Structure formats: C-alpha cells, structure tokens
Amino acid sequence: MSRRTxxxxxxxxxxxxxxxxxxxxxxxxxxxxxPAWLELASVPGASWAVLHASGTIASGAVGYARANDVLAxxxxxxxxxxxxxxxIAVAVHDMVRAGLIDLDRPVxxxxxxxxxxxxxxxxxxxxxxxxxxxPNWRDAAGxxxxxxxxxxxxFRYSGEGFVLLGRLIEAVTGETAAxxxxxxxxxxxxxxxxxxxxxxxxxxxxxxxxxxxxxxLADKGxxxxxxxxxxxxxxxxxxxxxxxxxxxxxxxxxxxMPMFTIPNMAAGLWTTAADFARCLAYAQRYAMxxxxxxxxxGTLDWGLGWGLERGADRRFAWHWGANDGxxxxxxxxxxxxxxxVILTNGDSxxxxxxxxxxAIFARxxxxxxxxx
Length: 372
Fold this sequence. Notes:
By secondary structure, the chain is of the alpha+beta class. The chain is built from ten helices and 14 strands. The strands form three sheets. Strands 3, 4, 5, 6, 9, 10, 11, 12, 13 and 14 form a ten-stranded mixed β-sheet that branches. A two-stranded antiparallel ribbon has the order 1-2. A two-stranded antiparallel sheet has the order 7-8. Helix 2 crosses helix 5 and helix 5 packs across helix 8.
C-alpha cells in the first residue's frame, strides 16, 4: 500500500483508504458503518476524505464505481456536481486579490449578457452569494437571463450565476475559465486528479451515475460527458471557447444554454474526495468565502462562495451537489478547519452524506432540514 493511500490523521489514527462490500477494510471510527449506510441507501459507492486541522488528509473509497462490476478506488473520479462552484469561487477570490476582478463592479461592464437595466447591475459579489436574482438554470431556447428581483436583496440559488462568473473570468483574462481555474486553484492546491473531463481516447477510472434504487444510469455521468465532448472540437474541453461550447450543444439538438454545454463551471468538475479536501485546505486563505453576505433562513446564510451555518458554539461552511445519479457534500468547521468530503454515485447519496457529517461532527445540521 502506497504512502498516497494511507495518511495519519490526529484523533483518527492510521486510516486504510479502500473499503468495499466485497471485503472489509478499516475506516476511521466515526465512519466504520459507511458500507452499511451505502447498502441501506442503495448507493453503489463513495469517495471520502477527512481534512484535519493540521492539514493532513485521510481519504479513500467504498463500494463500487459501477454497481456490482467495477470497484471504486482512491483515484476514481466522481462528479463534483455543484461542489464545482466552490472551486471557481476560490479562483475568483484569487483574481480579486490580484486586482483582476472588482467584487462590486457590474459584470455587464465586461460581459454583454443582458439588456435588462436591473439585471445589468449584477456584480460578482451578488453571483458568489446567490443574491443576483438569476434562475438556477434555463432550458428553453431564447429564454432571457434576467433577475427576478433587485440584485443583493435576497437569496436565490443560481447555477447560471456561476457560469456567468466563468464568462467574466474569460473576459478579464482572455483565457478559458477552466484553464484559469486549473492555474489558480487545481495546480497550486495539489488537485492532480481533478479536471473538467478527459480527452478522446483516454479511459480514466470514473464513477458512473445510479438511480435511487442503485441501478445504473447508462446514459448519464461519463457517457453524457463523452457525448457532449464528442459533439465539439477535438481539442480538450478546457480550451473550448464560448462559441465552440454553444455550437456543440446545438449540434446535439439542445439550446445554446449553459446547462447543455461543457465545461460547465458550475457543476462540471470531476474529482476525488482527497483532491477536494485539498481545495478546502487551499481555500482557507480566502476569508471572504466565510463572510455572511446573503440571509437564507434560520441559522443559514451564504458567504461569498459557500453556505454558512451558525450554531450556539460553532460555525460551519458547507455545500452540497446533485447531478443525475450523484449526491455530494462537504462540511468545514470554521474554528478548527477540520472538514469532511463525501462524493457518492447514487441519487440516494444524501442519506449517506448526512450520516457521514453527523458522525464526524457529532451534531445535527440545520442545512439538512432546509435542503429540498
């Protein structure tokens, strides 16, 4: 077993990374029932990581990348889904620090995306805090991208907003957002396994999507990515321009809208839990991520890039992700910087990641009651 697969974590001990239903293996004590949780929830597999305050990471895989066929490994790539938003948020904060982006300058000064006067006032601050008023996703040809309320006045979760952040990055740098994020986050954070897809002719270890009963969704996940990739240029998708992304979508009979294009900066990262834990460690240098900016409900707020939950004695950052057949979560204790990441390849993965978070932090989370 290599040094990469077993890392010592204070308070958790030495951790063997790979556990499967086919054979037992050691997990950190709070998570030793994870194989049973996966079985009960009809979720084939999971990638997990625990980031300790010291910066050390314990990580591994449980179960199957493809149900009853291919075992998951620590290197298996899972869809990050909406956890992708945090990665581009970190890149934006890095660009703010470099003086390349002004959080309070209207995005429309750089990107011609709307003629609506109210929508033209949207700033990166609004987008990062989900207070832009933009919809989550549009799916009808010709549908305008328009704010539903005055930006900055309330919360409305928006994937479109984070795609717009990607377009802002491209306008400011003259480079594709995916390549900027790789240069400013993936590489410096040490996320060596993470990317926005894979090239023609390569077959990485990937987790397939599964429905709520654990059945394979053969046309989702890797297959859906490959179909979208093959509809466009032969160059790697992280080099595709906006025009190329839109042409590829149209060639498949889809509207030229973000939810049908790749790379999707709001939901298109492929990663491992260990890599994503490295992102969380790297993100600690950007305190504004954890600045309460938009009121959500009860103990919940949104910062400039991730969700926030206030407890009587502790504060947490968190984000969830859900694509077809995928359910993910991370939670960070903002006092200790300890974090847990859980990526699953099943529609019922929420049942698993909620148990993981409760087990690691020994508490209930209001965010789980709020999530739809």
